[in-house]
Automatic annotation (TrEMBL):
Keyword Transmembrane helix (UniProt): no
Residue stretches making up the HD domain: 258-400
Name under which the protein is recorded: HD domain-containing protein
Key word DNA-binding present: no
Pfam families referenced in this protein's UniProt entry, alphabetically: HD
Superkingdom per UniProt: Bacteria
Organism classification: Bacteria, Bacillati, Bacillota, Bacilli, Bacillales
Keywords: Hydrolase
Length: 407
């Protein structure tokens, strides 16, 4: 099996070669999620006003509102893997009071509705709404990456397989423990990689950039500067197109106000000019840097395993009573955040897997996890990076998240 492509404006080569037997073993241990097949996705923009539709949809939120004549109606927001769908439900024969408890208790509904169009915007008027009790594949109701899951998995494993011990065991056992959640988790709610599979794709993206930086013949600093120059070129193109298209002066690109920050962080990395990046420290840190997002976010299909691992003696009854729906901030996870959670998971799993790691390496990796947002105002748990790997993990995270948005 060979994965041969490129990344980051075509600058970073991806060349993964494993035997078919090895690839099969990796996929058996880390299987891809079950994706919808043989079914068409309902897209409301393809519908004609007046069409009668019957669909299974995910409820995102709802609100009881009043008409101009002070009658109740429901304003609803649904989604499927094609996107968001606006809807309403009139209070015919007191139906609002009857269905509101169902909306509180359930997330997935079979609906019968009519397609409406107003000001070129299409929506649904719901006539019937029945909760679905059976377990639902979240990929049939939420957007997900268009990347090939087996290829991403083999690529990620190949990078982890190059770690020395005990880093390799820590990384692979961590992945195995949380694989069912890690493979489907988003990396954000609304900024970057905000879809199922986003965390897997983002983690692989960071490792691609980090490996390019570490393997560049001219050195890691020149490699970083090369990537920043590509960002500058893209930003200039965005600005020129905005000018030619006569867009407003306040136009902002994905790369707006990023160039100076990237050079500032590169200057920080230059303070460690005599050092070479440590593959074990940087790749292990990348695996853990956003792992806490399986606790910070909630969505259909996510398990409670990470809470059980971190807090094995806790009473988690309140978690089992939750209604999982679209991608949202976990009400408990948002109190802590994915950065501290990543550090806690790293510490906990060293003990769980009974691995002996040098105390300096433990602090180096912990520091990378805690500082990967770069600045305190951006969520970093430390004032600024204090190591070469600390600067590099922030730079590659910054580049990958914005490259995703730029694409």
């Amino acid at each position: 099996m060979r994965i041969d492509s490129s990344y980051f404006f075509g600058q970073i080569p991806i060349d993964i070669q494993v035997s078919e037997d090895e690839a099969e073993q990796i996929i058996q241990r880390f299987p891809p999620p079950e994706l919808p097949s043989g079914q068409s996705t309902f897209q409301i923009d393809d519908q004609t006003a007046g069409n009668q539709v019957s669909q299974r949809l995910l409820l995102n939120d709802y609100e009881v509102r009043l008409t101009r004549t002070n009658k109740n109606f429901l304003r609803l927001s649904f989604s499927n893997n094609a996107g968001m769908i606006s809807a309403k439900m009139w209070d015919n024969q007191g139906i609002v009071n009857r269905v509101t408890p169902l909306l509180e208790q359930h997330a997935v509904f079979d609906i019968e509705a009519v397609v409406d169009e107003y000001n070129n915007q299409k929506s649904l008027t719901v006539n019937k709404l029945n909760p679905v009790e059976e377990t639902i594949n979240p990929f049939s109701l939420l957007p997900y990456t268009d990347e090939d899951f087996p290829n991403l998995t083999v690529e990620l494993y190949s990078y982890l397989d190059q770690l020395d011990e005990p880093y390799a065991t820590l990384a692979k056992e961590t992945l195995a423990l949380f694989w069912d959640d890690f493979r489907i988790a988003p990396a954000a709610k609304g900024h970057h990689h905000n879809y199922l599979g986003g965390l897997l794709k983002h983690t692989v993206g960071l490792m691609r950039i980090a490996r390019y930086i570490m393997n560049e013949d001219k050195g890691h600093i020149e490699a970083v500067i090369t990537l920043i120059q590509l960002v500058e070129k893209s930003y200039k193109k965005d600005l020129y197109l905005a000018y030619k298209n006569n867009e407003p002066i306040n136009y902002s690109s994905t790369w707006n106000q990023t160039i100076d920050h990237l050079y500032t962080m590169t200057k920080g990395a230059m303070a460690f000019n005599e050092q070479k990046p440590d593959y074990n420290l940087l790749i292990t840190s990348i695996l853990f840097h956003d792992l806490g997002k399986i606790l910070e976010y909630d969505h259909a299909g996510l398990s409670l395993k990470a809470f059980d691992v971190l807090f094995p003696t806790a009473n988690t009854e309140s978690l089992t009573e939750r209604k999982q729906a679209g991608i949202s901030m976990d009400p408990l996870g948002v109190m802590v955040g994915h950065i501290p959670y990543g550090f806690l998971l790293f510490s906990k799993l060293l003990e769980k897997f009974d691995l002996s790691l040098d105390i300096d390496a433990i602090h180096q990796i912990s520091h990378c996890i805690l500082c990967h947002h770069g600045l305190p105002e951006w969520g970093s748990a430390v004032k600024q990076p204090q190591t070469l790997e600390g600067y590099l993990i922030h730079i590659v995270d910054y580049l990958d998240s914005r490259y995703e948005n730029a694409k």
